[in-house]
Amino acid sequence: MTDFEYIQTKVEGELGFIELNRPHVLNAINQKMVIEILDCLERYDEEESVKVIVLTGNGRAFAAGADIEEMATVGAVDIELKNQFRSWDHIAEIKKPIIGAVQGFALGGGFELALCCDLLFAANNAEFGFPEVQLGIMPGAGGTQRLTKLIGKTRAMEWLLTGDRMSATEAERLGIINQTFMPELLLEETVRFTQKIAEQPSLSVRMIKEATLKAVDMSVAEGMKFERKNFSLLFSSEDQKEGMQAFMEKRKPNYRGR
Ligand code: CAA
After folding, report:
1. Which atom of ligand 1 is least distant from the CA of 68?
2. Which atom of ligand 1 is nearest to 112's Cα?
3. I need a labelling partner for 143 at 20 to 30 A (CA). Which of 15, 132, 238, 240 fits?
4. Region class of 227: left (phi > 0), else alpha (psi between -120 and 50), else beta
5. What's the gap in Å between 134 CA and the centre of ligand 1?
6. Catalytic: 112?
7. pLDDT score at 44
8. What keywords would UniProt list here (predicted)?
9. Could you read off the pLDDT tens digit of each residue along the chain, which spans 258 residues?
């Protein structure tokens, strides 16, 4: 995939990488970058050899938010009609796990993108926050909703209303990120972890991701119905037969993703 201007992509083994790539502006996300990220996610979702997607940033930020220069002069009508940030909603439709690796700043729209990831690792120098309030706007790509669902109203209000930046340690304590690493180990450790998921039977991974995301929006009763449906469905897969047969024969399973 070479036809992107603002992201770098590569497939290594079973992992598909997306690196935000405007380091001179701390990977500020412009409208075209939003389209490119989504386009690449969809391509990886279609590509059978890719099992898990890893999202990172080039340089000293994951992303320092939406591109303020691009946003500074637009009006409400343009925001309503052309704002690509609403595409972040489509990220939830990506079926493969998306693992974020955050070094440096993840602010505003960058933090919102990180919150769309299924698992999040960070360098211990990472800083998260929603500085929108200090610019006379507010988060517009899920910040008020996703952060609140994740850490609760009282805590979310604190960060959303002040625009203060939270450290990686604080983000880990609040359950926003899975684990922190030394900056120089972040990618290596993220890949090591991601590899564990890539080795699992991909239909199970897909069904588990789908059911777990439902838990965020549905009641437990509705979510349970969904979980049971996916659970039953997996019993029609070759990998379920192979996984259980391999267990009984005391050998390593040979999964085919079917
Ligand atoms: N948009 C455009 N350019 C940005 C940017 C952004 N969000 N963030 C940083 N840059 C640019 C800076 O203008 C600067 O460019 P120049 O070298 O040409 O001057 C370059 O990146 C490096 O930034 P700094 O010199 O400011 O670096 P620093 O280390 O002193 O500060 C920072 C880093 C604290 C992250 C600071 O850059 C900053 O506050 N950035 C803006 C963060 C922000 O407000 N983000 C929210 C945007 S709104 C949003 O995201 C809305 C939404 O919900 C969709």
Report:
1. 1
2. 53
3. 15
4. alpha
5. 12
6. yes
7. 98
8. Lyase
9. 668 999 999 999 999 999 999 999 999 999 999 999 999 999 999 999 999 999 999 999 999 999 999 989 888 888 888 777 777 888 989 999 999 999 999 999 999 999 999 999 999 999 999 999 999 999 999 999 999 999 999 999 999 999 999 999 999 999 999 999 999 999 999 999 999 999 999 999 999 999 999 999 899 999 999 999 999 999 999 999 999 999 999 999 999 999
Q: What's the CA-to-centroid distance between 113 and ligand 1, angstroms?
A: 16
Asked if residues 159 and 147 have their Cβ atoms less than 8 Å apart, the reply is: yes
Contacts 24+ apart (CB under 8 A), 228-233: 231/207, 233/207
200's CB contacts (< 8 A; 6+ apart) are 255
* Residue whose CA lies nearest to ligand 1 atom number 10: 25
CA angle, 244 then 248 then 254, to 5°: 55
Distance from the alpha carbon of residue 114 to the mean position of ligand 1, in angstroms: 17
Of 22, 24, 25, 128, the residue with max ligand 1 atoms within 8 A of its CB, to mutate for a pocket test, comes to 25
Q: What one-character-per-residue DSSP string does 72-125 give?
A: TT--HHHHHHH-GGGGHHHHTT--S-EEEEE-SEEETHHHHHHHTSSEEEEETT
CB-CB neighbours of 242 under 10 Å: 16
Residue 31 Cα to ligand 1 midpoint, Å, equals 16
The minimum-distance atom of ligand 1 relative to the CA of 67 is 1
